[in-house]
Hints:
The complex is a heterodimer of chains A (122) and B (242). By secondary structure, chain A is mainly α. Chain A contains six helices and no strands. With 242 residues, chain B is of the alpha+beta class. Chain B has three domains: 3-88; 95-152, bsu07140 like domains (CRO Repressor, 2-Layer Sandwich), CATH 3.30.240; 171-224, bsu07140 like domains (CRO Repressor). Chain B contains nine helices and eight strands. In chain B, α3 (35-53) packs antiparallel against α4 (59-82) and α4 (59-82) packs across α5. The radius of gyration of chain B is 26 Å and the shape is extended. In chain B, 14% of the residues are buried. Chains A and B meet through α1 and α5 of A and α1 and α4 of B. Chain B: It is found in: Cell membrane.
Amino acid sequence: MKEFLLYKVVPLLILAIFIMTMKSGDFLKKSFTDEDDVMQYVELVNQSIDDGDWATADKNIKDTKDAFLIVQKRIQFSVEKSELNRMGAAIYRAIGYVDEQDAAGAKAELQEIRFTWDGLGK
Amino acid sequence: MNETIVVLVRSIIAFGTLLIFTRFLGKQQVSQITFFDYILGITIGSIAANLSSDITTDAWPYWVALFGWTIMVLIMQKVAVRWRQASVYIDGEPVIVIMNGEIMDEVMKKLRFRISDLQEQLREKGVFDIKEVQYAVVEKDGQLSILKKADNLPVTPSDMKIKATYRGMGTELIYDGVLVENNLKQVNKDQLWLQGQLEAKGYKDITEVFLAVIDATGELFLDGYKDKMENPVDITDFKGLK
Lengths: 122, 242
């Protein structure tokens, strides 16, 4: 029994933990609190731009950045570095476009954020 | 992304996975019997290294590759064990290169084995005169096994009609200052007996002994932590270590 536990159960358990760590990105990128809901903030930014409310858009895009920084810590073990960089760069470009009140540029960056987000951890 | 922590976590995953997978593959793979086994070992190690440090790609594809290679090696091992012909096809066979003292030139050509290679391997086996060799076989891993002619074989006790004492395998009773109780029971001895033996050799306690081994004849080998050598031989010529 002890041998079965040591040589079969423990290695399988360790491998299961490894697999969970590597494949946890898709689950861990989901929102667990109000502050880490990246996609909700992206939609709010989109809505604010449509309404022409640039002050709210500016607040929401910065909230998107903060939310992503929280999520990034959770998913960093299971995603590519380049994907995280791409997501971060798109958010920062969107901040610039919102700051300049450039709706077309900001919307293009929001699309890139959505696309990259969908691929994170997949 | 905190690269240091990510690489550390991925290294733990790679290390643990490699350890489990190599234990799973068993000693046959570790012994690297053929050149192909050797390459498989390098490939699996290389995938594990990438899993550990290549953070431009996520860890999962590397882990799947590691798993895939391990499964393929396992299948190959199982096939080779079950079917003799498959084993010969996959791993090759040992080949005789010296038969009855004569070098098999055609075989040597087929193996692309130079005479200098043969001489070098013979020298490594302690044979400096090729005339001493009756048979030489190139094994699957490329190593040479030799059988010397009867005239050149060392004399054994049976040649001299002497009855040799059976020594058997040694059993460790103390390892690194710690008593191995299971082994003590196996040789039908107790701690009292062991303590007596230690005291007879000048040791007060088990913790003073680095290694104690008993052989089949009951003879005890003891080595303490304190070396008793007064003038140990020093083979280094590097003064920095002194």
